[in-house]
Specification:
Blueprint lengths: L15 E2 L5 E2 L2 H11 L5 H27 L9
Antiparallel strand pairs: 1-2
Length: 78
């Protein structure tokens, strides 16, 4: 598989999946998908979509953070 934005080879465990079911090599390339559709959408809808994508990324990272929190990596809570 290759990145839909930059055509670099994808690492299966590190790939990012976009809303259109295309796969990207990084968060930067995955964000390119949002810029492709930006001119045709309402600004409020763009903000909501951006926040939803961020929330989904944080949800994907949470199990990793929990796994490593007991192994010298500390997560500060404010």
């Amino acid at each position: 598989m290759r990145c839909a934005f930059c055509d670099q080879p994808l690492e299966v465990r590190a790939a990012w999946k976009g809303a259109s079911d295309r796969f990207y090599c990084s968060e930067f390339c995955a964000d390119s998908e949002a810029s492709e559709t930006a001119p045709t959408q309402d600004p409020a809808a763009l903000i909501e979509r951006h926040l939803n994508r961020r929330y989904e990324r944080l949800e994907r990272l949470l199990p990793y953070m929990r796994r490593y929190s007991g192994h010298g990596l500390t997560i500060s809570q404010h």
